[in-house]
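Suppose a colleague, Dr. K., hands you the sequence of a protein chain of 484 amino acids and asks what its three-dimensional shape might be. Before reaching for any lab equipment, you can write down a predicted structure in token form. Begin with the sequence itself:
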Amino acid sequence: MDRSIDYVIIVAYLIGVAIFGMVKGGKQKTSKDYFQGSGSVKWWAVCFSIVAAETSTLTFISIPGLAYLTNLNFLQVTFGYLLGRIVIATILLPSYFKGDLSTAYQFLENRFGGKTRSFASIVFIFTRLAADGVRLFATAIPLKLMLDISYPLAIIIIAVIALTYTYVGGVKGVIWVDVIQMIIYLGGALIALGFLVFNFLPDGFNSIISAASMDNKLEIFNFGFSGGFAEFFAKPYTLLAGVLGGAFLSMASHGTDQLIVQRLLTTKSLDAAKKAIIGSGVLVIFQFALFLLVGLGLYAFYGTYNLSEIGISKSDEIFPIFIIQQLPVGISGIIIAGLFAAALSTLAGSISALSSSTMLDLYKPFTGINDEAKELKISRYFTIMWAVLLVGSAFFFMSSSQTVVELALSIASFTYGGLLGTFLLGLLNKNAKQEDALAGFTAGIFIMITVIALDLAAWTWFTLIGVAATLIVGSLLSKLSNNK
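The predicted structure, expressed as tokens, is then:
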């Protein structure tokens, strides 16, 4: 099959978004322009950007694969995502908009001191590097399958495109590209579902319902009490684990992670930021439901759990292989362009967030630099550095056999508990000092190392356990020091 039209569409799209991002970013004169967009971005654009940044390629290829192999239990996690965002809007955002904050971790410096800010920034950097290395690898899967090239080359191609418009356009360019990207990749998913329903399945939507019902794949809620206490905590997608895990993960990722907080700080006001964060929660539920439905449609089409019969080795490849092998030329090009749209949004945002945290939380406080032109120049150097390091991280995760969405979320949950726990300690315990916060933060991370190493709980419990450990240790130390 001649794929020339698909290649033209994909190349034109990638070049087009790079140019669009550079133009919409405008000229930056300071690092604040580069990393915060001068606080001039509309709330709905930030809302779309948040959704595009958090879901990325993982949603596009891994969630359909998850539904293909299992059921709709993952949707429980998205209900928690919305709940977590409501808590962020109520508790964390007002604190961020009280002062002229440049990063999420500046709040920790204002509350506890510079050491806490630096430590939180370093933890964020390593977590984001690992988690988004997985996401970058996931993006390379369809490009590798379509062009029949190696994974390393596919990874490098994607990274260069994202770096181009992030380097020139800054966070403002990243956000406006995200708006376009979200529309394109959701449109791609809807087109794919439309072809499944109207072109490939004999009874259309009824074929999906019939196949899914026969194998109990329509189950959304799973209370998880049938297997005993140990199995309850080992299952990631029970109702309690999904809602609580999703809520705490969302509070950490959207309330304390610079990738998202950076976007919220580009809005004009607290009310605008609240609308952006809560609106993104509603959109995410719709989005995950759409991609899970695509997975059920693929199951109805292929009719087998045996991936080797389809010619693939992992469930993450099921949607890309359907797009490449089954959809008409031109249509497949549009959908793969949508997949790259999902990928670039997260990658570009990650590069910008990593460079902003490195510059504003670490380099600037330690060097005392106060030259706006020099700051902007160094900020761009950090942008290049993190793009290269993310490529290296993606290379590292190429050999993993775990579903990429679960792998990335597990990595994120690993440190998110300590991070969110430290923020909550600062808000809820007025007597806690910097030493208490650092000890609680460290304890939360070490307890998570133990939980993960001994496989004591599913990934949906990680953030909650880390938060509880950080708050308990930090509060106890605070009480002991105040009683002396």
